[in-house]
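Sanity check. The docking grid for magnesium ion depends on where the pocket ends up, so I'm generating a full predicted complex first rather than guessing from homology. Inputs follow.
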Amino acid sequence: MSSLSVSETAGIAQASADARVSIRVEDVSVTYRTSLEKKPTMKTTLLRLGRRERIVREIEALKHVNLEVRQGEVLGILGANGAGKSTLVRTMAGILPPTIGRVEVRGRVSTLLALGVGFNRELSGRENVTLGGLAAGLSRAQLRDKYDEIVEFAELEEFMDMPMNTYSSGMYGRLAFSVAVNMDPDILLIDEALSVGDAKFRKKSFKKMQELCAQDRTVVLVSHALGSIEELCDRAVWMHKGELQMEGEPDDVVHAYTKFLDVGEDALTMEDL
Amino acid sequence: MSTEIGTSPGDPELDARQAVVAPEHDEERQVEWKTEQHVYEPHRVGLPPLGPYVRELWRRREFAFELSRTTLRAQHFETAFGKLWLVLNPMLLAFVYFVLVDILRHGHRPHGYFAHLVAGIFLYYFFSGAVRESVKSVVGGGRLVLNTAFPRTLLPLSTVITAFWRFIPTFLIYIPIHLISGLPVNLATLWIIPIVLTIAFIAAGLAMFVAALQVYFRDVKSFMPYVLRLWLYASPVLWYPNEVPNHWEWILKANPIGGPMAAWSVVLQKGHAAPPVDMLTGLAWAVGLFVAGALFFMSREREFAVRL
Ligand SMILES: Nc1ncnc2c1ncn2[C@@H]1O[C@H](COP(=O)(O)OP(=O)(O)OP(=O)(O)O)[C@@H](O)[C@H]1O
Ligand SMILES: [Mg+2]
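Predicted complex below; grid placement will be based on this.
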């Protein structure tokens, strides 16, 4: 193996470009197998046994995706609903194992996936932050250090000891955002969570994101807010039906994507996309 | 900043790099990189690589303890009344069974029967509490399971820890009952430690099994009360292990906690060492169920995130 370099000493870093990859997704496919039942029970399984019908559907959410995210890079992922963006990010986080392929991640990951860093609504904000942090692999000491920052950033001091089902959805999102960005991760995975809270908090969280993106930190950002992708990201990929449709400069990708949205599906066959 | 061992020391480029940063920071970074490197691949037999899995499990053990502490706090375990409440239910049950058995035996109950009954019910409650609560552990994990990657076995294992904490006050209540009944306390009494441990491992194995099963069959939870009630009757709690007629002996043998529960009674009632046969069958069950439960759970756990 070659050396791992995390410093900004650019010249040297060039020499070990390979080692500076934070996330490597190699030929990854993810297939969901879902039963069509709402709530699978033993009873219905037994009752169905005689009929020998299988009510499982397979959905190929990712199809042979190859992707590399370099150390310190901010990658934006955009695409239509159901394109597989969340699936890709969950695979990077190690929550969903790939059906085929291999994912390699270097660094401590913090996830902010579709609003919620593992929150149980019956527990208080404080308990949730503690449990979420410990589950994510932080030590108690690290958590103690971060706790005040998290609360302060979320501006929820007086709510921390109340059960989270008393929170408004904005407050909920604010805490989730604050936890994810204050965990001081090497790699930050964010799935549609920039637009939480009120206007003031949004501004604040956007500023925080700019700050994090400017640092030597790997960020993967899934968003339907094309503006923030253009502004925050170094590179963007556009996903379409489980495949990487396009990869490149954020401006170009966003441009192509919006054009696609206007023109519709047929445009995919056009060369100049 | 960080370099791998094995690069030639004379490498000028390397030397230049090392000059940039302080060496102690360098080492720290290196360790961090090492421990924080993950590879996610499809697992061949459905099992994650065991070594890293167990290491990660151990590293995050604090989570299981904290989860258990949080659960207990929600049940007001830390107050005196909370603990009393915990003891009340099994005590009432013990009284009911006591009267019932006394009637059935026409008042001819052996010396120390009440203590036997209470001790048995308390230990059984540890076992059944762990198994019953664990059913909900994964399905109730909700967003934590959906959004964080961590060894899921921590969830059912945490319920075993919770059940153990709930067992402690009940055992303290048992001590005066034991003494008033004039039952012996001696060196052999220490056998209760391996007995409780054996029960804990059996409970943990089953806890993992039912927690995973509940993800696939959401009605497992509703079967549990019946199963656990029958299991109580099949264990030497209401009856003495040495009183079992020959043609029912198989129940005791087929019951994983039969051995340890029988030993529990022998140790507490007679002050004898635990019978080796009981302890060995209990140990065999404990190892078998724990390994089977863990393997089943781990082979399934990567699917949990898409099935909740
Ligand atoms: N838990 C699941 N079980 C079965 N299929 C799923 C599951 N989650 C997602 N899918 C399917 O996988 C595909 C990709 O979903 P995914 O959530 O990754 O899309 P997305 O790009 O994040 O969409 P959105 O923009 O709406 O968040 C979809 O077709 C969806 O139906
Ligand atoms: Mg999504």
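Relevant for the grid: Residues 199-214 of chain A form the longest helix (16 residues).
Also worth noting: Chain A is about 35% helix and 25% strand.
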